[in-house]
Amino acid sequence: MKYIWSGLLLLCSLQVQAEITVVEPWVRTTAPGQKVAAGYVRIVSDKDVVLVSANSSFADKVELHEMTVENGVMKMRPIKQLELKANTPVELKPGGLHLMLLGIKSPVKTGDTIPLNLVFEDKKASQDNVAITFNGRDITHQEMGHHAH
Predict the structure, then answer these.
(1) b vs e for 79-108, b when ≥16 Cβ sit within 10 Å of the residue's Cβ?
(2) Is 64 domain-assigned?
(3) Are 105 and 116 spatial neighbours (Cβ–Cβ below 8 Å)?
(4) 8 to each of 18, 54, 57, 117, how far by Cα in Å?
(5) Is the pTM of this model over 0.85?
(6) Which of 112, 130, 142, 116 has the alpha carbon at shortest distance from 28?
(7) Is there a contact between 65 and 119 (Cβ–Cβ < 8 Å)?
(8) Which of 49, 108, 115, 148 has its CA 20 to 30 A from that of 60?
(9) Domain tally for the chain?
(10) Sign of the CA dihedral 109, 113, 116, 118?
(11) Are strands 20-28 and 90-92 parallel, antiparallel or unpaired?
(12) Confidence bin at 140 (pLDDT 50/70/90)
């Protein structure tokens, strides 16, 4: 009987982590000497969570940025966090939300693999770290919002 109670207590004390799915993580290739790179990915969580930070051994710092148009001028600015609603995909893509890798250690070439860690927080301030690998690749005209003629 004491084993049953122990098991029940253990089950009650477990925290349920969010299931976070990351799809197609990639980083745009860079020119020699360039010190920043942009990362893109699609993220879905089965619970409401907030992306609160990111880090990578490949860069000195990783920030979340958004692109906006103000008075006809495209501007980029960092944002502190990104809310994800349960089962609602959020896409970080060229021309919109994206990750900025600042102080990159070397140029990004097609096929490179870049480790990155995303840190999510739920309503109870419980954190979940998601380690992913971004792939270096060239941007296409379609991703830039251009159409082939």
Answers:
(1) eeebebeeeeebebbeeebbbbbeebeeeb
(2) yes
(3) no
(4) 21, 36, 41, 33
(5) no
(6) 112
(7) no
(8) 49
(9) 1
(10) positive
(11) unpaired
(12) low
d(CA 27, CA 24): 10
Distances in Å between the Cα of 75 and the Cα atoms of 68, 72, 96 are 5, 9, 10
Residue 12 lies in a domain: no
- Asked whether residue 13 is domain-assigned, the answer is no
Is 66 domain-assigned? yes
pLDDT computed for residue 16 by the predictor: 53
Domain of residue 92 covers 18-137
**Is 40:93 a contact under the CB 8 Å cutoff?**
yes
Token digits of residue 95 = 């021309």
CATH number at residue 99: 2.60.40.1890
Six-digit token pair at 72? 């006809």
pLDDT, tens digit, 9 for 90 and up, residues 80-114: 999 999 999 999 999 999 999 999 999 999 999 99
Residue 17: the pLDDT is 67
